[in-house]
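Quick sanity check, Potassium transporter protein:
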Amino acid sequence: MAEYRYLAKPDPEWVDFPNRLPPGTKVHGMSRDRDPIAPQAGLDIDELDVAARDAHPIRLRSYRKTPPPPRDTEPATATEPATARLPLFLYMHGGGYVTGGLETDDATCRAIAAKLRVHVLSVEYRLAPEHKFPTGFQDCYDVVRWVASEEGQDRLGVDLLKGFVLGGTSAGANFTSGISHYARDQGLTPKITGVVFLAGSYCHPDARPAKYLDRILSIDEVNDAPGLTRKSIDYFAAKYGAPPTDKRLSSLLFDSHAGIANKAYFSVCGWDPRRDESLLLEQLLRQEGLGTRLDVYPGLPHGFWTTCPDLPESKRWLEKLLQGLAWILDEA
């Protein structure tokens, strides 16, 4: 998409990263750490395990508002009790399929659960190279199928008819796209109602369909951004080991993108080799009749909000994400 090349003009603060960032800016690296849960007033945060298809226990971290203490009677004006079941936002972290974990976006998951009327569930899927493709994808899909089951909904206390939203960052957004397509084709019920794509990738560079070659240019052109370049993309792809043309990795290869959800929200980084895939997928979903919202961040690199969450632009990103999720959940 040549018309979007201007988005790759670097933000001056991010040139020569991290040397031009404001003094005192904290830079967060990726790790596989799982720390003890830090309590937060107003939130119930706990963890549970769900069995994968090979019986591996997949750890999930659950976030929801703490319900008020029970009262003998509800106010006559109340439309539903405070303990009513919530919609669900199932989140998958980024990290190139090889790193990241429950701590990577813990602060974001907390903010979503605190601000919106939604139960947030974060997935600790298995990572490459110890667990190559399709293990991470299958772990996430197994969680999706579990939460859609009567057992899963009852254990979590959610009502997916109120909202069943799937989302993630980078590799997690890639899982989101592949899973939502497969769930549609396999007739998963309840259906996924919303998808959230944060700095996502949707096609291996070597599997780009011929009809999109002039629309996916950033993967070849953006090679000077901090955090992600074509070299690092190829490195992660080799560790992950997915065949380029497997649709679970390259969901742009699906013949149709209709019906994967009702609404889709995108965060797109302008100075990101994966930029054009997100812009293309948003257009394709809109053409298929999905409601879409798109926030683009010119000059900013892949997943900047995870790297430097305290910067003003990262805080603006979080506010925009909350607005996008509220729109998907019909709270806007």
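Posting the structure with no commentary besides this: The beta strands are 43-51, 57-65, 88-92, 119-124, 164-169, 194-198, 263-271, 291-301.
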